[in-house]
Amino acid sequence: MTNNEFDDIRRVSTLPYNWGKLDNKVLLISGGTGFIGSFLCDVIRYRNRYYGQNTKVISVACRQFENDETVTYLSRDIREPITIEEDVDFIIHLASNTHPEQYKVDPVGTITGNVFGTYNLLNLALVKHSSRFVFASSCEIYGDGREKP
User: Fold this and answer.
1) CA dist 12 to 37, 66, 82, Å?
2) Is residue 52 a contact partner of residue 36, using CB atoms and an 8 Å limit?
3) Is the pTM of this model over 0.90?
4) Torsion of CA 103, 74, 79, 63, to 10 degrees
5) How far is the C-alpha of 110 from the C-alpha of 68, rounded, in Å?
6) Strand order, beta sheet including 26-30
7) Where are the beta strands (DSSP E) in the chain?
8) Is 77 exposed, middle or buried (0-12, 13-18, 19+ CB in 10 A)?
9) Cα separation, 142 vs 134, whole angstroms
10) Residue 132 pLDDT
11) Which residues are CB-neighbours of 85 under 8 A, at least 6 positions away?
12) Are 87 and 128 in contact (CB under 8 A)?
């Protein structure tokens, strides 16, 4: 990790949000090994280390990284139903194929992955009685909005 990356993590970690809502909670992040998801995992690690939040993260992604005291990585295809043993307080859905070329080559398969992935994560939120579900995506899923992004 570069100094600039660490500075960004520290800066976001110290923003005046109500971070206490994450104390002793479990956060599931789909796409947790992607650009935004991995950054969010790093922010939670920082908050745990310097603020003692004790937030656990379950990262659901196609790639598998080594687990640590904050993040448990689960290699899953979100197009399939998701079952996990742990309670899940919050779900942040960031998983999506964001490669424009893939949309050109296989638009139905790409969109189907987005739809079924969201559906399966929403079902998991129901089963786990999660408090919040956040869905975030790039313009790739919404299209090119000329008037309003």
Assistant:
1) 14, 24, 30
2) no
3) no
4) 20
5) 31
6) 71-75, 56-61, 26-30, 90-93, 132-135
7) 26-30, 56-61, 71-75, 90-93, 132-135
8) middle
9) 16
10) 97
11) none
12) yes
Q: What is the band of 80 on the pLDDT scale with cuts at 50, 70, 90?
A: very high
Cα distances from 135 to residues 117, 132, 141, 149, in angstroms, run 11, 10, 12, 16
Q: How far is CA 132 from CA 26, 29, 39, 58, in A?
A: 11, 12, 20, 15
Q: Tokens 């399939």 sit at which residue? A: 80
Distance CA 50, CA 83 (A): 32
Which tokens go with 57? 């993260």
- The Cβ of residue 119 has, within 10 Å, a number of other Cβ atoms equal to 13
**What residue has token string 């998801």?**
37
